[in-house]
Amino acid sequence: MTNGLFGNAPADILVGPGNQFVAEAKRMLFGKVGIDLFAGPTEIAVIADDKADEELVAVDLVGQAEHGYNSPAWLYTTSKRIADYVIKRVPELIAELPDLPRENAGAAWRDYGEVILCDTDEEMATISDEYAPEHLEVQTQNLEWFHKRLKNYGSLFIGEETTVAYGDKCSGTNHILPTKGAGRYTGGLFVGKFIKTLSFQRMSKEATKTVGAACARISRYEGMEAHARTGDVRLRKYGFSN
Length: 242
Hints:
The chain has 242 residues and is of the alpha/beta class. The protein has helices at 20-29, 54-65, 80-95, 99-112, 121-131, 143-149, 164-169, 205-221, 225-237, and strands at residues 13-14, 34-35, 44-48, 73-77, 113-117, 135-139, 155-158.
């Protein structure tokens, strides 16, 4: 696509999901073409309080861990009951999977799984914003508060009725999302990614009196005499002293 495919013109930007080989190809091409974002292994985090269904929490964590051996699965909870349940239940659920998903999910949970017990909703939100997970489920009593409070994530799944797999497969929201903490400074792919921003300047002769003088003065402070003279020559031409 970068060099032209099936007689089409070369692409200017490449977007879309893919495995580690797709991600590496996009990294290598970045600069020659634009890309949407660098995507690492998929991530899931669940925020859960004592009102959450502990089985749903455990199943959802495993549901994303099967993506690969290096896919983090994180739980932030104020409930020790749910924390203890998930720690016990997740390995049981993984053991019930077919061979390849079991291998992937087992390695992911062993090496990247975390259960963080928090004291308050605010602490859960703060930790979640620090991690900036790609996919973030909220299974709490106070859904609206979390929706308004949370700032950093790729995509948010609100309430036990939704799950990350819906976004993966069929709910229709964009699913090309930031990973590895990139949710702190960017969101997922959206229409703005296909819009190029152009800027321009146009000055009046009268503006040169202020702008030309400022340009010359700042340039000389920086030791850039040729820059300064582009302002000087206009000041002289338009009858302003410099």
